[in-house]
Amino acid sequence: MKKSTTSLTAVGILFLMSFSIQAQSNDWTGKWNTTFLGNNSWALNITKSGTSYTGTFPSGKLVGKYQNGNLTGTYTRTVNSFDRTGMGNMGEFTFIMHADKKSFEGEYKPEGKDWQADNWNGTRPVSKYGNLLEEQVAKKEITQRDQVLKEYANKDKPAPIKQWTGTWETDVMGKLKIHEKNIANVLGKYRFQVNNKFTNGDITGKVIENNRNKFEGHFKDSEGKSGLIKISYSNLIRATPGYDFTGVLIYDFTPEQKKMNIPLTKKVVSIKGHRVSSLEPNMVNYN
């Protein structure tokens, strides 16, 4: 068990490390305002495909790779007779990200020359949508990471069992099958035998919302008997040992009883049930 736990921990750490590296490498993508030679300014747009980065700026293009938090690579330009940048047709560059992730300091080396004293620096554009978009992207990545971690943590956990769904053996209704679709829609089927004669019945009811240990519904069997069923888990007060639920059946008056012109009391029968399966039962038949 210890070895298994250690393995899972190692996998989780590796996942977080890979996610962190991925998030850092994504810091370079997007739009930047870059400056060099004091007051010259270029808009630079960087995109990522696999492990390669491509940037476009006026009359130029750069190709780079992510390395130790920095972006390094080469650039190419289309130079005209009015060009005074000194960058030439091609060269090398290195961009170093600042801690705020919103600016970088860069250097460039034209082909055949040394690294230049002037820097090629960049900042994120402050626009109506720029910072908000960055925040939304960051939140989305964090949400995706948390969802992956949650799914990984729960991958070996069994699906939650609905409290009343399952098959029960009862002392009054015989075999009782219950399917809890939700707390407001619970179906039941039961079958018992008396003197070699089988009686089938159906139940419709609900779980009591403020106390999920209780279930109430109406039953009606193939003999025409109907009424109210009230049952609760046996961990409640006055529970009967050896059974998973206890309760009562309150029978409706029969048509003959309703015709009687005298006060009557409804028949009340106690019921006890023991769960034999927590699997969702077959509700097509009564068997």
TrEMBL record:
Q: Which UniProt keywords apply?
A: Signal
| Signal sequence range | 1-23
Q: Organism's domain of life?
A: Bacteria
Q: Does the keyword Signal apply?
A: yes
Q: What is this protein called?
A: MORN repeat variant
Origin species = Arenibacter antarcticus
